[in-house]
Amino acid sequence: MNDLNALFSPIEDGADEAATIEAALLCVEAFKDRFNARDLPGMDALLHFPHVILSGENLVIWDDHGQLPASFFDDLTASTGWDRTTYHDKRPILTSPRKVHLVVEYTRDRADGTIASYHSNLWIVTFNNGRWGIKQRSY
Predict the structure, then answer these.
(1) What is the edge-to-edge ordering of all strands in the sheet holding 115-128?
(2) C or N: which end of the chain has fewer Cβ atoms within 10 Å?
(3) How far apart are alpha carbons 125 and 128 in whole angstroms?
(4) Region of residue 130 (left: phi > 0; alpha: psi -120 to 50; beta: else)
């Protein structure tokens, strides 16, 4: 990018902020539904690539679909007792016409209703290539 000022100023496209937030929230909700359905290709379809994950201080970049092993959900269940994920809050904290930063709070729940783990993460959802998708997650 030659114009550094443009880097720090999002393109205005007249988008309605409430509609932008709603679209981002629908994308994140659909991701949870695919996660609970144990649908890896369906989850990938809701991501934008390259997809960025910041886990602690470790930066992981997925260049394309198919980064999770086929055993991902079996491994998660075996190690934690996970049965489903429940969102408790999806709070927009920064919005621009084609990007929404959300704090996503959720639990990973066991079949007996107990909580295996609690998470509060930053997710960035963007609109590109004609669709909303999750571009970055920070854990």
Answers:
(1) 58-62, 47-55, 131-138, 115-128, 99-110, 82-96
(2) N
(3) 10
(4) left
- CA 128 – CA 41 distance, rounded (Å): 19
Residue recorded with tokens 């999750």: 134
Model's pTM, two decimal places? Answer: 0.91
Record the tokens describing residue 109, joined without a space: 């729940």
What does the DSSP assignment read for 9-63?
Answer: SPPP----HHHHHHHHHHHHHHHHHHHHTT-HHHHHTTEEEEEEEEETTEEEEE-
Q: Which CATH class is domain 13-138?
A: alpha beta
